[in-house]
């Protein structure tokens, strides 16, 4: 076990000064209502792209919009504002949990107060509809039907960003929304360093001419068996299956209502079993984070993961650092052999490991290898900036998409289904989200290095297929804090230093120079 | 097509007097919030016994309880009270829809104002927990674990009934809650008439000694194929599958969020295919009713079915009057043959019809034939009265159950799983609900007779497997009105006379004397 004494424990709530009681009661009461709405909204959001018939989309959107309005009234009430102001002034008298609650709720209040409730409700209605249109557009490879929604969403989100902060660039506002403290300046710098590593590596790999074979993981894999495999992957990863629901959707995602209920919505392709495997490892990382938050935060604003980047940090941690590690390969292969004995019988762990680490530019982000993955993110980051600056319209996106994929990856995008329609994010208003995937990868690399420095027996654990110690380190240093700490503070506490992308670039460089003998 | 001119159309909302505008605005605003909460609560209620892990039960209960409290505050606000009082005084100036909204909301307000919000919230939390305990108790045949919940629920519901009306018998209050205008006096009279028909018929059948064979529907029926069959049954019945979700649960039930989203939760037994068949016809009746309400009522208190009895009137209509009619038998048999060709190949419609109409006392209510069915209801009605009067405690229930099943049906109850634990109703606080099943049967018989009098070509339609005309009659006379009319008014409008159980008793008498040659 690693030494965890260095981390402060999540503090118990002690008795608080009695003259603060009415303010704390206001806080507690608002939190109860926000909890119920959050539980309901998340549930409705999960059902939309998984279970609900298309016929009910507008009705669900209306219900969600009204719940949003109610949240707005709750959070922006003068009574709560008074209570939060007073409690902030008496910051020193609060226990740490209450102090965090006050801080998080004040930030939410500041954001919500600036944006009219009607705009937030409009975004909710519009994304409900747009997500439905997107799913059909993707199936039909029909960008034109989705196109007007992109323009409407960008216009609305630009307006909302302006309402939040008229002096700030609209896209910066949304970057900061998904990851506190980030901006184009931050990501420009980060992505420049990533490109400095990835681009030359990719050129070296190309000139090398060697490619590991993927034959061993190719073939036709029965869907029903893949669903059983999906369950086993989550179990191997350590997801608590007694507090979990696995369901089906077009574009995989995760959600959690409380620590007692995490959801993975997955998609199975009969012609690709590794896609399911790594997608499940990824979503299982999100589930683990949510299940690992201190349960006493469940009914408060401190519940759930602290940011998109830290969430992707956990999901990409299990997908890549664990799931694509040579030491772990025998255990994933064993699962595959259990469900597909005939097809996988003769495959060796080394063949399997190389096959799932082959660097090969192709058009689908979620199928990308670790090395080219950030380039997929950078393409979206650049196109989103063009949309938000007004330099591009939705009609330009398919063209831009093809051009950038050619430029960055040397890949021909065959159609919009495997191009600009591949991801659901824009349809749900997640402009500014994609960069957090790459950032999450970098968080994960830094956390892994720290874990090793703290004495986690990585190689040994993974080669035994035992993730207990790895999970416990993440739970201790990241998961349990929920939203009570911002991502930069979590990194600083866990790693005794600020965010440093060199862990990520060094990892990529060493790993792929090793595999390709460069 | 039947002559539907006799029925008034659901009126359009016309312009209303402008001095009523602020009151109407209050009404509209409250309805919007109630709609969102209803949508969320129904969704959470559906997921509880179908999808959710047991670990989240208390969290879901808490979310539901808070939404209940919010409804209480909305409905009981002095502002809404003032608006409803004012609008009631100007009743004559309102269009018919608004008048119905005011009437229904006032009734809800009167009920909610009397019961403290904390009690309603407690019932919500308790039923969430109890439903979960019940499901496990049933699986384990363990009455003892469920027993304390029955006592706690009865105590709480007695207190709530007393709060609603301290001068009235507590059980009467709940009977009236599920079916407006009913009481023990009403049901005592109704059940006496039912017993007068059923008991002698049952004795005659016993002495006759003849029984149709059930061999033709017995065997082992693959679960996956039964789920496909379930879908086909709903489609044959006319349920709109584009606004529908079929899911799995322990005890079948239906729900609907709006006219655009009906749910059936079903259960498949591999050793009994007719149970699935008739259960789907039953739940499809509930779905049809909800889908058939005027869609303009969706976001108002007029949405959904008007009462439990009228709901069961529709479900038992399709289960029995349609589903157990000789003319319809070939179509159900055809579905069975499609999914189970080997097993059903040689079965004739006449054999199938007789097999599914055999009168045979046995311990399970949902498997009961049409004739013994009301006796199952009467047993529950009697035991519930004993619980609510304090003459019996939960600990007495298994004994009472066995004694009454012996007395009424001559049946030995083998265990609590197939005895007092068979139904989920009590666990969800549905004391006083069971009588509506029998009442629904009687509503259905009266509606069927009226349908025939109105010229619906019953025999001809059913023998063609075409339910369009039957459904259209029900839509015109019952479904579209939603909650805008009470059940007695609907019966009066459709049948030009009040509720009359002789349609039901005559139907049973004629049908079973025919089948058994009495």
TrEMBL record, chains A, B:
Keywords: Carboxypeptidase, Hydrolase, Metal-binding, Metalloprotease, Protease. GO terms for molecular function: carboxypeptidase activity. It is an enzyme of class 3 (hydrolase). Pfam families: Peptidase_M32. It catalyses: Release of a C-terminal amino acid with broad specificity, except for -Pro. Broad specificity carboxypetidase that releases amino acids sequentially from the C-terminus, including neutral, aromatic, polar and basic residues. This is Metal-dependent carboxypeptidase.
């Amino acid at each position: 076990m690693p030494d965890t004494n260095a981390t402060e424990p999540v503090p118990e709530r002690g008795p608080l000064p009695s003259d603060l009681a009415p303010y704390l009661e206001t806080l507690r009461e608002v939190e109860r209502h926000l909890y119920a709405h959050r539980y309901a909204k998340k549930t409705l959001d999960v059902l939309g792209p998984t279970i609900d018939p298309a016929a009910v989309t507008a009705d669900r959107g209306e219900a969600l919009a009204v719940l949003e309005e109610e949240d707005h009234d709750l959070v922006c009430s003068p009574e709560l504002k008074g209570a939060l102001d007073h409690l902030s002034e008496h910051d020193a008298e609060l226990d740490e949990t209450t102090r965090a609650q006050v801080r998080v709720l004040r930030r939410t209040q500041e954001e919500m107060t600036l944006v009219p409730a009607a705009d937030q409700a409009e975004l909710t209605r519009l994304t409900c509809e747009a997500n439905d249109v997107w799913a059909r557009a993707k199936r039909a490879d029909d960008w034109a039907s989705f196109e007007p929604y992109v323009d409407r969403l960008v216009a609305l989100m630009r307006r909302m960003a302006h309402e939040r902060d008229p002096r700030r660039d609209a896209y910066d506002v949304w970057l900061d929304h998904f990851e506190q403290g980030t901006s184009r300046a931050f990501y420009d710098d980060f992505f420049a360093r990533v490109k400095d590593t990835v681009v030359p590596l990719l050129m070296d790999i190309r000139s090398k001419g060697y490619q590991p074979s993927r034959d061993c993981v190719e073939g036709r894999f029965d869907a029903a068996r893949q669903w059983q495999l999906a369950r086993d992957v989550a179990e191997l990863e350590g997801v608590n299956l007694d507090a979990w629901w696995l369901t089906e959707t077009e574009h995989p995602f995760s959600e959690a209502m409380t620590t007692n209920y995490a959801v993975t919505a997955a998609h199975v392709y009969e012609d690709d079993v590794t896609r399911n495997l790594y997608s499940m490892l990824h979503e299982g990382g999100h589930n683990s984070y949510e299940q690992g938050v201190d349960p006493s935060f469940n009914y408060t604003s401190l519940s759930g993961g602290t940011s998109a980047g830290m969430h992707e940090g956990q999901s990409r941690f299990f997908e890549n650092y664990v799931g694509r590690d040579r030491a772990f390969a025998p255990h994933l292969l064993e699962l595959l052999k259990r469900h597909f004995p005939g097809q996988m019988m003769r495959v060796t762990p080394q063949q399997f490991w190389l096959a799932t680490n082959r660097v090969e530019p192709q058009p689908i982000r979620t199928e990308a290898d670790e090395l080219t993955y950030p380039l997929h993110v950078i393409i979206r980051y650049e196109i989103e900036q063009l949309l938000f600056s007004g330099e591009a319209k939705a009609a330009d996106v398919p063209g831009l998409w093809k051009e950038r994929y050619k430029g960055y990856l040397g890949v021909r995008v065959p159609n919009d289904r495997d191009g600009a329609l591949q991801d659901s994010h824009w349809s749900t208003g997640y402009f500014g989200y994609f960069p957090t995937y790459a950032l999450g990868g970098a968080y994960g690399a830094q956390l892994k290095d720290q874990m090793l420095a703290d004495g986690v027996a990585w190689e040994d654990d993974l080669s035994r297929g035992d993730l207990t110690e790895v999970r416990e380190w993440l739970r201790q240093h990241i998961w349990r804090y929920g939203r009570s700490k911002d991502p930069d503070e979590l990194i600083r506490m866990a790693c005794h230093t600020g965010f440093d992308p060199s862990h990520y670039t060094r990892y990529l460089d060493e790993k792929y120079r090793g595999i390709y003998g460069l």
